[in-house]
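Lecture 7 notes: from sequence to structure.

We start with a single chain of 94 residues. Read the sequence below before looking at the structure.
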Amino acid sequence: MDAWTIVKRPIVTEKSNRLMEQNKYCFVVDPKANKHQIKQAVEEIFKVKVLAVNTMRMEGKIKRLGRSEGRRPDWKKAVVTLAPGSRIQFFEGV
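Now the structure, written as tokens:
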């Protein structure tokens, strides 16, 4: 798999901003990707040293529109811990 197909987009929320102070970054990743693939993809894209990757499967929410009910798709979240001194410049100033 290509690095850009594994790491889909960053997650920028209040909780993820607090994690950035601990040198941890959150990403939406491909549901089929494992921790080793996510680590290699983040190191390749952002040129940083990754210490650990924690993943979790997020269940899609049930939404209603009138009488009909549907679901948002399930997705996978990865919290990536970087080595001390490593920073991702993409997130700076967010």
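The mean pLDDT is 94. Keep this in mind for problem set 3.
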